[in-house]
Every structure is written in C-alpha cells, then in structure tokens.
Target of Nesh-SH3/FNDC1 C-terminal domain-containing protein
Amino acid sequence: MLSLAACALLAACGPIVSGGGGGEETGDDDTPVEPGDPGQPLPEGWSYGCFETFDEPSCDGAKYVSFNETYQKYVGVILCAADRYKLYLGESEEGVFYQIGDYAGHGQDHCELVNPAFSIPNEDDITSGGCQDCATSADASWYANPVGTQGYSRGVFGEGFTFEPVWPEYNLYTVDWLSCGVSFPVGGGTCGGTSPDPGGFGWSPGNFQVGGVATPCGGDRYVRFDEEYGLYVGAILCSPTRYKLLLGETEDGVFHEIGDYAGHGQDHCELVNAGFTIPDEDDITSGGCTDCATSAEESWYENPVGSQGWSRANYGQGFSFEPVWPEYNLYTVGWYECGATIP
C-alpha cells in the first residue's frame, strides 16, 4: 500500500495519481458525472469525487467527497465496499488528498468524518459510542506507519487535524479501511471516463460459504462455473475491480482459498479475465494486462498452514484440493486485480 516508502524523509515527493479503479464517470474536463444507477442514495452532504491521492490507495472503488465545516477540510472516501472505505483529507475538492494518521490509536475516531452521529467515549473501542457496525482494519492488524510520506494527523476525537510534511518515524498510524456505520453507492465508471473490461465471463450473485479466508474484501459475492477446470469460481468484492478469489465444488457450498506453489497467485487471474496470459509467472503484467495486480505486490500474502484450499503451480494447470494446507511454499493473497470487473 505504501508506495512512497522510498521517499523517506523527502517532503518534496510528488503525488501518485490514483484515478480509475471503479470511481465515477467523468466528462471531457474530468468533472464527475453521476452514474445512471447508483443503487442507493448518497449520504447527505456527499457528492461524487474525482481527486488524486498522494499515496497509492488501499481501496480502489468509487470516490466521494464532502466538505467538513468543523475542520475546514474536504473529506475524501474511496470504497473497498459500500460500507468499507479508506478516508483522506484535502484542502480542495479536486486537489491532492492525503492519508490520516492517529497518534493515540489506529484511526477509530476518524469515523466522525463520515458519520455525524459517531462518538467514541473509549478511544480504543470504535463501538463504545454505540456504533455496532463500526470497525477498522486495525482490528485485524492491518495498519501502518508510512514513514516519510505526507499526511494529516491528530490524537483524539474532536481535535483539529495537523498537516505532516514528513510522516514521523514513531506512533502515527493509519489504517487500510474503516467501516463507520454509513454506506455509499458502489456503482460508477472510472475517473478517467472509461469502464473496465468485464473480462468475458458471466457472473451471478453468490450465496456460498467460506472457510478459513483472510482478506480485506467484505463486499458482495459472485460466482460462476468454470468449464475448463470443472469448479465454481467465487469472488468476494473489495470493489468491482478488486476481489478475493476462491474455488468450490458446488455453487452454494463451502469455497476455499487458492494457493500458488510457483508464485503468489498471479496466474489465477485467468479465472476472471478470459484474455489473461502470463508468459512470466512472476510478472502479472507480462501478458499485457497493465491493470493487473495482487496484494503480494504490497507484501500482503500468507501461507495458512493447516487450513484447507486449492492449489496449483502454473498458468493452465488444473487445481488440486489440499485437505491440510502444507507448511511451506503454498501462498495465497488477500486480493486480486485482473483487469476485469465483477460482475
């Protein structure tokens, strides 16, 4: 996630343009155009956004923006799912937005930027003010201290935010996502005005179960049957362009993670994108899919020893079921981007 780590202690590092990836359609002047079917109304005070982020974002869905009168900042939201998002702050509606750090926790109090009714009597318990649907990736140990980048900071609920031209080395943490008891429409094209390729496969809403799955994706589920491998492919959305992939033998049964003996799941994108190829098994873009990526590029992968799952080594091979996930060399990732949208 923190692609500016190499810029440590260099406040002059330039922003990374983060357009695209499931945001909103725009006109010729990059002005956001509301999707035709947003699926649900926008929360009061929010509009479709088209901002850049200084760091590579951890979520890649639709973007929304609102001006916060209390703190005199624009609040930016990038969706992982309708009720899960990365929060940012910026000085102008279409300018560069920055991550938000917390000196006294892991961003729990930042939910007030999204939910006007939010309170947090206990700064370490995001639900202490009554928001039972509130959560943060820090609850699953997904947080970071992106030393050397730039961002906003504060210590506790109700304080103003201070700009940090150089993110300090210690005690200022930011999270990958927050759920603040408020949902946003998932629908929309991309900030660049084009829609991602659907990948050539048909997907149906899924009702499958999952076993032993570690992923930041918590959105809608979709399923399709793969004729070539004789298995059902399941997807749990982080956004329409980012998802966790699984395999199962029945459409409504238990689906399991997919492991890779010769990489970190790069070749699994063929399960989503009919045009995907990978001449170099270690380079997910080697077949021409420049929008393809996995969480392994951000060092987010694991070897869930003792779990159950499916495995293979190379593109085009069949998948074998592993009743006991081996101790070594079989890795699975938290999410995939395969140059195709689901559904």
Remarks:
- The chain has two domains: 5-180, 204-338.
